[in-house]
Amino acid sequence: MVLCAVRRHLLKSSSSSSSCGAWARLLQRGCVYSSVHCLDQGEIREKLQAFPGGSVDLLKQESGIAVLTINYPSRMNAFSGSMMVDLEERVSQLESWIDCKGLIVQGASGTFCSGSDLSAVRAISNPQDGMKMCMFMQNALTRLLRLPLISVALVEGRALGGGAELTTACDFRLMASGSVIQFVHKHMGLVPGWGGAARLVRIVGSQNALKLLGGALKVDPELGLQIGLADGVLEVPRAEEGVGTLLQRAENWLSHYTNGAAPVVQAVKKVVLSGRELPLSEALRTEKDVFGTVWGGPANLQALASKSKHR
Fold first, then answer.
1. Comparing C-alpha atoms, which of 184, 168, 223 is closest to residue 76?
2. Is residue 248 over pLDDT 80?
3. Which of 27, 45, 197, 217 sits most deeply, having the most CB atoms within 10 A of its CB?
């Protein structure tokens, strides 16, 4: 299988250490599609770039927590073609960030994401281009989910269609009060194409996934918590509390899982990811390999010296 360029680089780095062989094999699966599947990355990127508008912005902070913002408020943060390319490029940047620990994915101006910009969708509505766009976005969102960091989608306002699919490419989902996640694909004569259905089944189970997709149900925070799609609910701050408070609350929530040394947080994500995606015997070998990268490391030795095991 021909790998995406960034994956080729990561594999080269990983395979240089004998202790990361199983993890390197998992990275091989990072790009679900390649030229073997008739996906020409350059061709589809060029076609998508022909439909500009909005942006996907990345802020990397010294804390090791990054914020990814879907930014196209005039279209309810719908993905234009160029924003799809932006997303793939931002994932590449995160893949090469050594000190990463966590990621918050949010939408600009009080709404999460309303899926695809219809002007771009109409222009590539033929089956051939639609399939290529589907493969491109599946690659990007699979790589997002497999990042060696802990990610959370901060859902404010609406997450519709492809926006709902984007939430499933994060490890966790936080819903603001009054927000809605809705897989509206059936209303458009479609099913999810960015990997959202496969990921949704793993999150909420096949019965709930069938209800959400077949009924295009509106998932509010209460229902989200009930079926396991939401991991927490945040109250939308009042205007007098200041701008950015909701994001700050999300960062505080995420900090429960990202506190500590970056190598340890990354190791946690790696063993969970391998346990989810690899056969048991290979997942066990990966766990052993990743364990070897932190055993006797600075964080481990410091914890032993401070006898912090039961704190």
1. 184
2. yes
3. 27
